[in-house]
Amino acid sequence: MKNFLIILFFLFNIASYAAASPVNGITVMIFGDSLSTSYGLPAEAGWVNLLKQRMQVLSPHYQVINVSISGETTLGGRNRIEQALKTHQPDIVIIGLGGNDGLRGASIQSIHDNLEAIIQACQRNNATPLLAGMQLPPNYGIAYTQKFRNIYPQLAERYQLKLIPFLLAGFGDKREFFQADGIHPDVAAQKLITENVWEVLYPMLESNYSAVQRKMQLEPAFNN
Protein backbone atom coordinates (compact mmCIF):
# COMPACT_ATOMS: atom_id res chain seq x y z
CA MET A 1 0.00 0.00 0.00
CA LYS A 2 2.84 2.35 0.90
CA ASN A 3 4.57 1.69 -2.43
CA PHE A 4 1.30 2.28 -4.27
CA LEU A 5 0.87 5.69 -2.59
CA ILE A 6 4.43 6.68 -3.48
CA ILE A 7 3.89 5.77 -7.13
CA LEU A 8 0.55 7.61 -7.15
CA PHE A 9 2.20 10.72 -5.66
CA PHE A 10 4.98 10.52 -8.25
CA LEU A 11 2.53 10.25 -11.13
CA PHE A 12 0.46 13.14 -9.77
CA ASN A 13 3.53 15.41 -9.70
CA ILE A 14 4.44 14.49 -13.27
CA ALA A 15 0.91 15.28 -14.43
CA SER A 16 0.94 18.59 -12.57
CA TYR A 17 4.23 19.56 -14.16
CA ALA A 18 3.00 18.65 -17.63
CA ALA A 19 -0.12 20.75 -17.14
CA ALA A 20 1.87 23.75 -15.93
CA SER A 21 4.73 23.57 -18.42
CA PRO A 22 4.54 26.03 -21.32
CA VAL A 23 6.33 23.51 -23.50
CA ASN A 24 3.36 21.18 -23.02
CA GLY A 25 0.68 23.80 -23.42
CA ILE A 26 1.27 27.28 -24.77
CA THR A 27 -0.94 29.24 -27.13
CA VAL A 28 0.42 31.69 -29.68
CA MET A 29 -2.16 33.96 -31.29
CA ILE A 30 -1.42 35.60 -34.64
CA PHE A 31 -3.09 39.00 -34.80
CA GLY A 32 -2.44 40.43 -38.23
CA ASP A 33 -3.69 41.32 -41.69
CA SER A 34 -3.55 39.66 -45.12
CA LEU A 35 0.19 39.02 -44.75
CA SER A 36 -0.80 36.49 -42.10
CA THR A 37 -3.86 34.97 -43.79
CA SER A 38 -2.17 33.11 -46.67
CA TYR A 39 -3.80 35.61 -49.03
CA GLY A 40 -3.85 34.19 -52.57
CA LEU A 41 -2.30 30.91 -51.45
CA PRO A 42 -3.49 27.58 -50.04
CA ALA A 43 -3.83 27.83 -46.27
CA GLU A 44 -1.28 25.07 -45.71
CA ALA A 45 1.39 27.07 -47.58
CA GLY A 46 1.12 30.14 -45.37
CA TRP A 47 3.75 31.05 -42.80
CA VAL A 48 1.31 30.65 -39.92
CA ASN A 49 0.75 27.01 -40.80
CA LEU A 50 4.49 26.48 -41.28
CA LEU A 51 5.08 28.00 -37.86
CA LYS A 52 2.47 25.71 -36.33
CA GLN A 53 4.15 22.66 -37.84
CA ARG A 54 7.52 23.74 -36.47
CA MET A 55 6.14 24.37 -32.99
CA GLN A 56 4.38 21.03 -32.86
CA VAL A 57 7.68 19.29 -33.54
CA LEU A 58 8.72 20.61 -30.12
CA SER A 59 5.44 19.67 -28.46
CA PRO A 60 2.12 18.39 -29.83
CA HIS A 61 0.41 20.52 -27.20
CA TYR A 62 1.52 23.83 -28.65
CA GLN A 63 -1.35 25.81 -30.14
CA VAL A 64 -1.25 28.42 -32.88
CA ILE A 65 -4.45 30.40 -33.33
CA ASN A 66 -4.75 32.73 -36.30
CA VAL A 67 -7.29 35.54 -35.94
CA SER A 68 -5.81 37.69 -38.70
CA ILE A 69 -8.15 39.43 -41.14
CA SER A 70 -7.31 40.54 -44.67
CA GLY A 71 -7.45 44.31 -44.96
CA GLU A 72 -7.22 44.79 -41.20
CA THR A 73 -5.97 48.11 -39.86
CA THR A 74 -4.56 49.01 -36.47
CA LEU A 75 -7.88 50.62 -35.57
CA GLY A 76 -9.76 47.45 -36.48
CA GLY A 77 -7.30 45.47 -34.40
CA ARG A 78 -7.70 47.86 -31.50
CA ASN A 79 -11.47 47.39 -31.61
CA ARG A 80 -11.36 43.61 -31.51
CA ILE A 81 -8.28 42.72 -29.45
CA GLU A 82 -10.09 42.46 -26.11
CA GLN A 83 -12.60 39.94 -27.42
CA ALA A 84 -9.89 37.91 -29.13
CA LEU A 85 -7.89 37.76 -25.90
CA LYS A 86 -10.91 36.71 -23.84
CA THR A 87 -11.93 34.07 -26.37
CA HIS A 88 -8.54 32.43 -26.93
CA GLN A 89 -6.55 33.36 -23.79
CA PRO A 90 -3.18 33.26 -25.57
CA ASP A 91 0.20 33.23 -23.85
CA ILE A 92 1.91 35.11 -26.68
CA VAL A 93 0.37 37.45 -29.27
CA ILE A 94 2.23 38.17 -32.50
CA ILE A 95 1.01 41.62 -33.57
CA GLY A 96 1.40 42.02 -37.33
CA LEU A 97 -0.53 45.18 -38.10
CA GLY A 98 0.16 48.60 -39.56
CA GLY A 99 0.91 47.82 -43.18
CA ASN A 100 -2.56 48.71 -44.43
CA ASP A 101 -2.54 51.92 -42.41
CA GLY A 102 0.75 52.94 -43.97
CA LEU A 103 -0.33 52.12 -47.51
CA ARG A 104 -3.38 54.32 -46.96
CA GLY A 105 -1.29 57.17 -45.63
CA ALA A 106 -2.82 57.15 -42.15
CA SER A 107 -1.33 59.49 -39.59
CA ILE A 108 1.76 58.22 -37.81
CA GLN A 109 0.26 59.17 -34.46
CA SER A 110 -2.92 57.14 -35.03
CA ILE A 111 -0.92 54.06 -36.05
CA HIS A 112 1.29 54.44 -32.99
CA ASP A 113 -1.64 54.96 -30.61
CA ASN A 114 -3.63 52.01 -31.96
CA LEU A 115 -0.68 49.64 -31.73
CA GLU A 116 0.05 50.91 -28.24
CA ALA A 117 -3.55 50.21 -27.19
CA ILE A 118 -3.27 46.65 -28.56
CA ILE A 119 -0.04 46.10 -26.63
CA GLN A 120 -1.58 47.41 -23.42
CA ALA A 121 -4.62 45.17 -23.86
CA CYS A 122 -2.37 42.13 -24.23
CA GLN A 123 -0.43 42.98 -21.11
CA ARG A 124 -3.60 43.58 -19.08
CA ASN A 125 -4.71 40.08 -20.07
CA ASN A 126 -1.38 38.45 -19.15
CA ALA A 127 -0.43 37.81 -22.78
CA THR A 128 3.09 38.62 -23.96
CA PRO A 129 3.08 40.79 -27.10
CA LEU A 130 5.58 40.10 -29.87
CA LEU A 131 5.64 43.03 -32.28
CA ALA A 132 6.26 42.41 -35.99
CA GLY A 133 7.79 45.46 -37.64
CA MET A 134 6.68 46.68 -41.04
CA GLN A 135 8.17 48.97 -43.68
CA LEU A 136 6.75 50.89 -46.62
CA PRO A 137 7.96 51.28 -50.23
CA PRO A 138 10.19 54.34 -50.78
CA ASN A 139 7.61 56.03 -53.03
CA TYR A 140 5.71 57.08 -49.89
CA GLY A 141 8.41 59.64 -49.17
CA ILE A 142 11.49 59.52 -46.97
CA ALA A 143 9.97 61.40 -44.03
CA TYR A 144 6.78 59.34 -43.81
CA THR A 145 8.42 55.95 -44.40
CA GLN A 146 11.08 56.61 -41.76
CA LYS A 147 8.55 57.74 -39.16
CA PHE A 148 6.41 54.72 -39.95
CA ARG A 149 9.36 52.36 -39.63
CA ASN A 150 10.34 53.89 -36.29
CA ILE A 151 6.96 53.20 -34.70
CA TYR A 152 7.82 49.55 -34.04
CA PRO A 153 11.23 49.84 -32.33
CA GLN A 154 9.95 52.81 -30.33
CA LEU A 155 7.03 50.82 -28.95
CA ALA A 156 9.19 47.76 -28.38
CA GLU A 157 11.66 49.82 -26.37
CA ARG A 158 8.98 51.60 -24.33
CA TYR A 159 7.16 48.41 -23.39
CA GLN A 160 10.26 46.15 -23.28
CA LEU A 161 8.92 43.89 -26.01
CA LYS A 162 10.62 41.43 -28.30
CA LEU A 163 10.61 42.75 -31.85
CA ILE A 164 10.71 41.12 -35.25
CA PRO A 165 12.51 44.03 -36.96
CA PHE A 166 10.78 43.51 -40.32
CA LEU A 167 8.32 40.71 -41.07
CA LEU A 168 9.42 40.64 -44.73
CA ALA A 169 13.15 40.90 -44.05
CA GLY A 170 15.38 39.31 -46.65
CA PHE A 171 12.99 39.68 -49.57
CA GLY A 172 10.81 42.77 -49.06
CA ASP A 173 12.55 44.59 -51.91
CA LYS A 174 12.66 41.61 -54.30
CA ARG A 175 9.77 41.48 -56.76
CA GLU A 176 10.25 37.78 -57.50
CA PHE A 177 9.06 36.85 -54.00
CA PHE A 178 5.63 38.43 -54.47
CA GLN A 179 2.42 37.44 -56.17
CA ALA A 180 1.13 39.24 -59.25
CA ASP A 181 -0.28 42.10 -57.16
CA GLY A 182 3.21 42.99 -55.96
CA ILE A 183 1.97 43.23 -52.36
CA HIS A 184 1.40 39.72 -51.05
CA PRO A 185 4.31 37.28 -50.63
CA ASP A 186 4.36 34.08 -52.67
CA VAL A 187 4.88 30.49 -51.50
CA ALA A 188 8.67 30.73 -51.37
CA ALA A 189 8.46 33.90 -49.29
CA GLN A 190 6.28 32.21 -46.67
CA LYS A 191 9.26 30.11 -45.62
CA LEU A 192 11.37 33.24 -45.20
CA ILE A 193 8.68 34.89 -43.07
CA THR A 194 8.59 31.77 -40.90
CA GLU A 195 12.33 32.08 -40.30
CA ASN A 196 12.00 35.77 -39.42
CA VAL A 197 9.33 34.97 -36.84
CA TRP A 198 11.03 31.86 -35.49
CA GLU A 199 14.30 33.67 -34.83
CA VAL A 200 12.56 35.84 -32.23
CA LEU A 201 9.78 33.53 -31.07
CA TYR A 202 11.86 30.46 -30.27
CA PRO A 203 13.91 32.12 -27.49
CA MET A 204 10.63 33.31 -25.97
CA LEU A 205 9.35 29.73 -25.90
CA GLU A 206 12.60 28.54 -24.33
CA SER A 207 12.40 31.31 -21.75
CA ASN A 208 8.87 30.32 -20.76
CA TYR A 209 9.92 26.70 -20.41
CA SER A 210 12.95 27.61 -18.27
CA ALA A 211 10.82 29.80 -16.01
CA VAL A 212 8.47 26.91 -15.25
CA GLN A 213 11.39 24.56 -14.63
CA ARG A 214 12.81 26.99 -12.06
CA LYS A 215 9.40 27.33 -10.43
CA MET A 216 9.02 23.57 -10.15
CA GLN A 217 12.49 23.28 -8.58
CA LEU A 218 11.69 25.95 -5.99
CA GLU A 219 8.23 24.72 -5.02
CA PRO A 220 9.43 21.75 -2.88
CA ALA A 221 11.54 24.15 -0.81
CA PHE A 222 8.56 26.40 -0.17
CA ASN A 223 6.29 23.47 0.63
CA ASN A 224 8.60 22.00 3.26
Q: What is the topology, as strand order, of the major beta sheet?
A: 2-1-3-4-5
**Helix content range of the residues, please?**
40-55%
Number of strands: 5
Count every helix, treating DSSP H or I runs of 4 or more residues as helices.
7
Structural class: alpha/beta
Estimated radius of gyration: 20 Å
Strand content bin:
5-15%
Gross morphology: globular
Polypeptide structure, described:
This protein has 224 residues and is of the alpha/beta class. The chain has seven helices and five strands, in the order H-E-H-E-H-E-H-H-E-H-E-H. It has helices at 2-20, 47-58, 74-88, 99-103, 108-124, 142-159, 187-223; strands at residues 27-32, 63-66, 92-96, 128-132, 162-164. The protein has a five-stranded parallel beta sheet, sandwiched between helices. The two termini are 24 Å apart. The relative contact order is 0.14. The model is unreliable at 2-23 (pLDDT under 50).
